[in-house]
Amino acid sequence: MHRQQQGFTMIELIMVIVILGILAAVALPRFANLQTDARAAKADAILGAIRSASAIAHSAALVGNATGPTGTVSLEGATINLVHGYPAGTETNASPGGIILAANLDATNDDVTITADTGTVTIEINGGTATTCTVTYEQPTGANDTPDINLVKTGC
Question: Computed over its alpha carbons, how large is the radius of gyration of the chain?
């Protein structure tokens, strides 16, 4: 006679639960740190966007001979205010604007806090436990200066 199996034995069920418990204990710490990694990656991406936008605006300023103390360039239909040939350190993303418009950053859509103070723009990555996950852009202060662009991601 053939014996029909009605289900799993108690031993099989316990072994599956033990294996799932071990996998959860090993995998959970790996996934728990993803938010920190994501904020750090976002900070890196914003840093790259600001550096690229600054270089593109400066190239357009050189081509258009707009490297004086003030000037403007047009990038993709938007007017970018310049200071010594680089985007101005202003927080607006409306035309005319500075580095924020040139880098196409939006505080609401990018989940960042953008503040500006006399030529320095600070972009803080939201969601962390500390406010030191930031990118700063300082417009040049003289004719032969370049912008100072810094990334601090110790508190992401």
Answer: 25
pLDDT tens-place string over residues 48-64: 999 999 999 999 999 98
* Alpha carbons 49 and 64: distance in angstroms, whole number: 22
> Do residues 52 and 42 lie in contact, with contact meaning Cβ atoms separated by under 8 Å?
no
**CA-wise closest residue to 51 among 86, 75, 23, 22:** 86
Measure Cα distances from 69 to 78, 98, 100, 140 in Å.
20, 14, 19, 10
CA–CA gap between residue 60 and residue 2 (Å, rounded): 84
d(CA 12, CA 33): 33
Beta sheet of 86-87, edge-to-edge order: 71-75, 78-83, 86-87
Find, among 77, 71, 75, 79, the residue nearest to 95 by Cα.
79
For residue 47, give the H/E element and its range.
helix 34-63
What is the 8-class DSSP label of residue 147? -
Output the pTM of the full model. Answer: 0.77
Question: How far from chain centre, in Å, is Cα 132?
Answer: 13
CA-CA-CA-CA torsion for 46, 54, 140, 156, nearest 10 degrees? Answer: 10
